[in-house]
Amino acid sequence: MSVSQLSISTQNYLKVIWSLQEWSDAPASPGRIAEKTGLHLSTVSGAMPKLAEQGLVEHVPYSGVRLTDAGRAIAVAMVRRHRLIETFLVRTLGYGWEQVHDEAEHLEHAVSDFMIDRIDAVLGHPARDPHGDPIPAADGTVDRPEATPLSEVAARLTDAAERARVRVERISDEDSGLLLHLASRGITVGASLEVGGGDPYSGTLLVEVVASAGTAEGGAQVDAAGDGGPMDVEDGASQATPSGVVPATVAEPTSLSVDAASHVYVSPL
Question: What is the mean pLDDT of the chain?
Protein backbone atom coordinates (compact mmCIF):
# COMPACT_ATOMS: atom_id res chain seq x y z
CA MET A 1 0.00 0.00 0.00
CA SER A 2 1.39 3.39 -1.01
CA VAL A 3 0.68 6.93 0.19
CA SER A 4 -1.07 7.80 -3.07
CA GLN A 5 -3.61 5.01 -2.57
CA LEU A 6 -4.94 6.56 0.64
CA SER A 7 -7.21 9.54 1.18
CA ILE A 8 -5.84 12.78 2.59
CA SER A 9 -7.75 12.24 5.82
CA THR A 10 -6.22 8.79 6.25
CA GLN A 11 -2.75 10.19 5.56
CA ASN A 12 -3.34 12.86 8.19
CA TYR A 13 -4.62 10.41 10.80
CA LEU A 14 -1.63 8.13 10.41
CA LYS A 15 0.86 11.00 10.55
CA VAL A 16 -0.79 12.45 13.65
CA ILE A 17 -0.84 9.08 15.44
CA TRP A 18 2.86 8.61 14.67
CA SER A 19 3.75 12.13 15.82
CA LEU A 20 1.89 11.60 19.12
CA GLN A 21 4.01 8.51 19.72
CA GLU A 22 7.30 9.90 18.40
CA TRP A 23 8.32 11.12 21.85
CA SER A 24 6.11 8.82 23.92
CA ASP A 25 5.44 5.08 24.17
CA ALA A 26 1.82 5.61 25.18
CA PRO A 27 -0.96 4.66 22.72
CA ALA A 28 -2.63 7.57 20.93
CA SER A 29 -6.05 8.14 22.47
CA PRO A 30 -8.96 9.43 20.36
CA GLY A 31 -9.01 12.53 22.54
CA ARG A 32 -5.37 13.37 21.81
CA ILE A 33 -5.87 12.68 18.11
CA ALA A 34 -8.93 14.96 18.08
CA GLU A 35 -6.99 17.72 19.82
CA LYS A 36 -4.08 17.41 17.39
CA THR A 37 -6.26 17.37 14.26
CA GLY A 38 -8.87 19.88 15.42
CA LEU A 39 -11.65 17.38 14.66
CA HIS A 40 -14.57 16.40 16.86
CA LEU A 41 -13.97 13.44 19.13
CA SER A 42 -16.94 11.62 17.58
CA THR A 43 -15.39 12.02 14.12
CA VAL A 44 -12.08 10.58 15.27
CA SER A 45 -13.75 7.73 17.17
CA GLY A 46 -15.68 6.80 14.03
CA ALA A 47 -12.56 6.85 11.86
CA MET A 48 -10.41 4.52 14.00
CA PRO A 49 -12.38 1.30 13.24
CA LYS A 50 -12.08 2.07 9.51
CA LEU A 51 -8.30 2.42 9.83
CA ALA A 52 -8.23 -0.87 11.74
CA GLU A 53 -10.19 -2.59 8.95
CA GLN A 54 -7.51 -1.43 6.49
CA GLY A 55 -4.83 -2.96 8.71
CA LEU A 56 -3.28 0.41 9.52
CA VAL A 57 -3.92 0.62 13.28
CA GLU A 58 -4.69 -1.76 16.09
CA HIS A 59 -6.90 -1.02 19.07
CA VAL A 60 -5.35 -0.97 22.55
CA PRO A 61 -8.13 -1.59 25.12
CA TYR A 62 -8.87 1.42 27.35
CA SER A 63 -5.95 3.35 25.86
CA GLY A 64 -6.29 4.16 22.19
CA VAL A 65 -4.59 2.93 19.05
CA ARG A 66 -1.14 1.98 17.82
CA LEU A 67 0.10 1.90 14.25
CA THR A 68 0.63 -1.47 12.61
CA ASP A 69 3.78 -1.97 10.54
CA ALA A 70 1.81 -1.00 7.44
CA GLY A 71 0.40 2.08 9.14
CA ARG A 72 3.81 3.13 10.42
CA ALA A 73 5.34 2.86 6.94
CA ILE A 74 2.72 5.26 5.55
CA ALA A 75 3.01 7.61 8.53
CA VAL A 76 6.80 7.81 8.30
CA ALA A 77 6.56 8.49 4.56
CA MET A 78 4.22 11.41 5.30
CA VAL A 79 6.49 12.75 8.04
CA ARG A 80 9.44 12.50 5.64
CA ARG A 81 7.51 14.53 3.05
CA HIS A 82 6.50 17.13 5.61
CA ARG A 83 9.94 17.70 7.09
CA LEU A 84 11.79 17.73 3.77
CA ILE A 85 9.32 20.30 2.42
CA GLU A 86 9.82 22.45 5.53
CA THR A 87 13.59 22.26 5.07
CA PHE A 88 13.30 23.11 1.37
CA LEU A 89 11.11 26.14 2.10
CA VAL A 90 13.59 27.48 4.67
CA ARG A 91 16.80 26.83 2.77
CA THR A 92 15.75 27.45 -0.81
CA LEU A 93 12.82 29.86 -0.64
CA GLY A 94 13.86 31.84 2.42
CA TYR A 95 10.84 31.08 4.62
CA GLY A 96 11.09 31.64 8.37
CA TRP A 97 10.89 28.57 10.57
CA GLU A 98 7.56 29.76 11.96
CA GLN A 99 6.02 29.94 8.47
CA VAL A 100 6.68 26.48 7.06
CA HIS A 101 4.49 24.11 9.06
CA ASP A 102 1.15 25.12 7.56
CA GLU A 103 2.62 25.30 4.04
CA ALA A 104 4.03 21.80 4.38
CA GLU A 105 0.68 20.53 5.68
CA HIS A 106 -0.85 21.40 2.29
CA LEU A 107 2.05 20.52 0.00
CA GLU A 108 2.80 17.09 1.49
CA HIS A 109 -0.37 15.65 -0.04
CA ALA A 110 0.31 17.02 -3.52
CA VAL A 111 3.93 16.06 -4.18
CA SER A 112 5.08 12.75 -5.62
CA ASP A 113 7.61 10.37 -4.07
CA PHE A 114 9.93 11.20 -6.97
CA MET A 115 9.78 14.91 -6.15
CA ILE A 116 10.49 14.25 -2.47
CA ASP A 117 13.53 12.15 -3.41
CA ARG A 118 14.76 14.97 -5.64
CA ILE A 119 14.29 17.54 -2.87
CA ASP A 120 16.19 15.25 -0.52
CA ALA A 121 19.06 14.90 -2.99
CA VAL A 122 19.24 18.62 -3.82
CA LEU A 123 19.35 19.49 -0.11
CA GLY A 124 22.14 16.98 0.50
CA HIS A 125 20.06 14.47 2.49
CA PRO A 126 19.55 16.60 5.63
CA ALA A 127 19.21 14.79 8.95
CA ARG A 128 17.04 17.39 10.70
CA ASP A 129 14.33 19.83 9.68
CA PRO A 130 14.40 23.54 10.65
CA HIS A 131 12.88 22.78 14.06
CA GLY A 132 15.40 20.05 14.86
CA ASP A 133 13.05 17.15 14.19
CA PRO A 134 14.69 14.11 12.56
CA ILE A 135 13.89 13.59 8.89
CA PRO A 136 13.13 9.90 8.20
CA ALA A 137 15.39 8.27 5.63
CA ALA A 138 14.00 6.85 2.41
CA ASP A 139 14.05 3.37 3.95
CA GLY A 140 11.87 4.52 6.86
CA THR A 141 14.55 4.64 9.55
CA VAL A 142 14.39 7.54 11.99
CA ASP A 143 17.45 8.71 13.95
CA ARG A 144 15.74 10.40 16.87
CA PRO A 145 17.99 12.50 19.12
CA GLU A 146 18.10 11.75 22.84
CA ALA A 147 16.27 14.74 24.23
CA THR A 148 14.08 15.74 27.16
CA PRO A 149 11.60 18.62 27.57
CA LEU A 150 13.31 21.62 29.15
CA SER A 151 10.52 21.79 31.72
CA GLU A 152 11.44 18.30 32.98
CA VAL A 153 15.10 19.27 33.30
CA ALA A 154 14.14 22.27 35.43
CA ALA A 155 11.78 20.16 37.56
CA ARG A 156 14.65 17.85 38.52
CA LEU A 157 16.66 20.70 40.02
CA THR A 158 16.41 20.27 43.77
CA ASP A 159 18.07 23.47 44.95
CA ALA A 160 16.99 27.03 44.14
CA ALA A 161 20.56 27.90 43.20
CA GLU A 162 21.16 24.75 41.13
CA ARG A 163 21.65 25.17 37.39
CA ALA A 164 21.79 22.75 34.46
CA ARG A 165 23.52 23.30 31.13
CA VAL A 166 21.80 21.90 28.08
CA ARG A 167 21.73 22.11 24.31
CA VAL A 168 18.52 22.69 22.34
CA GLU A 169 17.85 19.69 20.08
CA ARG A 170 14.33 20.43 18.82
CA ILE A 171 11.44 22.83 19.31
CA SER A 172 7.83 21.91 18.58
CA ASP A 173 6.55 23.70 15.48
CA GLU A 174 2.87 23.63 16.44
CA ASP A 175 2.75 27.25 17.68
CA SER A 176 4.29 29.81 15.31
CA GLY A 177 3.92 32.53 17.95
CA LEU A 178 5.96 30.51 20.42
CA LEU A 179 8.69 29.97 17.81
CA LEU A 180 8.97 33.73 17.33
CA HIS A 181 8.93 34.31 21.10
CA LEU A 182 11.72 31.82 21.70
CA ALA A 183 13.81 33.05 18.79
CA SER A 184 13.62 36.64 20.05
CA ARG A 185 15.29 35.37 23.22
CA GLY A 186 17.96 33.40 21.37
CA ILE A 187 16.39 30.03 22.17
CA THR A 188 16.80 28.22 18.85
CA VAL A 189 17.95 24.77 17.72
CA GLY A 190 21.62 24.32 18.62
CA ALA A 191 21.74 27.00 21.31
CA SER A 192 23.40 26.20 24.64
CA LEU A 193 21.36 27.15 27.67
CA GLU A 194 21.75 27.37 31.42
CA VAL A 195 18.46 26.68 33.18
CA GLY A 196 17.36 27.16 36.76
CA GLY A 197 14.17 27.36 38.75
CA GLY A 198 12.07 30.53 38.69
CA ASP A 199 10.37 32.26 41.59
CA PRO A 200 8.37 29.86 43.79
CA TYR A 201 4.76 29.40 42.63
CA SER A 202 5.40 31.54 39.54
CA GLY A 203 5.08 28.71 37.04
CA THR A 204 8.27 29.90 35.35
CA LEU A 205 11.91 28.93 35.05
CA LEU A 206 15.00 30.99 34.31
CA VAL A 207 16.91 30.44 31.09
CA GLU A 208 20.19 32.01 30.02
CA VAL A 209 21.63 31.56 26.53
CA VAL A 210 25.32 30.84 27.07
CA ALA A 211 26.06 30.15 23.40
CA SER A 212 23.85 30.91 20.41
CA ALA A 213 23.05 28.33 17.75
CA GLY A 214 26.14 27.55 15.68
CA THR A 215 28.56 29.06 18.20
CA ALA A 216 30.11 27.32 21.16
CA GLU A 217 31.30 29.08 24.29
CA GLY A 218 34.42 31.00 23.28
CA GLY A 219 33.16 31.61 19.76
CA ALA A 220 33.98 28.27 18.10
CA GLN A 221 31.62 27.11 15.37
CA VAL A 222 29.57 24.00 16.17
CA ASP A 223 27.03 21.88 14.36
CA ALA A 224 23.44 23.03 14.83
CA ALA A 225 22.17 19.69 13.52
CA GLY A 226 22.88 17.77 16.66
CA ASP A 227 25.71 15.39 15.74
CA GLY A 228 28.38 17.29 17.64
CA GLY A 229 30.66 17.79 14.62
CA PRO A 230 31.63 20.92 12.70
CA MET A 231 28.71 23.10 11.72
CA ASP A 232 27.30 22.13 8.33
CA VAL A 233 25.82 25.18 6.65
CA GLU A 234 23.76 22.83 4.50
CA ASP A 235 21.91 21.42 7.51
CA GLY A 236 18.24 22.39 7.71
CA ALA A 237 18.27 23.25 11.41
CA SER A 238 21.35 25.47 11.09
CA GLN A 239 19.57 27.78 8.68
CA ALA A 240 16.21 28.04 10.44
CA THR A 241 16.00 31.80 10.80
CA PRO A 242 12.58 33.20 11.77
CA SER A 243 11.28 35.82 9.37
CA GLY A 244 11.69 39.35 10.67
CA VAL A 245 13.37 38.20 13.88
CA VAL A 246 17.04 38.44 14.74
CA PRO A 247 17.70 35.88 17.49
CA ALA A 248 18.96 37.66 20.55
CA THR A 249 22.12 36.87 22.46
CA VAL A 250 20.69 37.00 25.96
CA ALA A 251 23.19 38.30 28.53
CA GLU A 252 20.86 37.97 31.50
CA PRO A 253 18.52 35.08 32.37
CA THR A 254 15.03 35.38 30.94
CA SER A 255 11.83 33.96 32.40
CA LEU A 256 10.12 31.20 30.46
CA SER A 257 6.81 29.61 31.37
CA VAL A 258 6.80 25.90 32.20
CA ASP A 259 4.31 25.37 29.37
CA ALA A 260 6.59 27.06 26.82
CA ALA A 261 9.57 25.10 28.15
CA SER A 262 7.69 21.83 27.59
CA HIS A 263 7.93 22.47 23.83
CA VAL A 264 11.73 22.80 23.93
CA TYR A 265 13.65 19.50 23.89
CA VAL A 266 17.23 19.50 25.13
CA SER A 267 20.21 17.23 25.76
CA PRO A 268 22.76 17.65 28.57
CA LEU A 269 26.06 19.42 28.00
Answer: 85
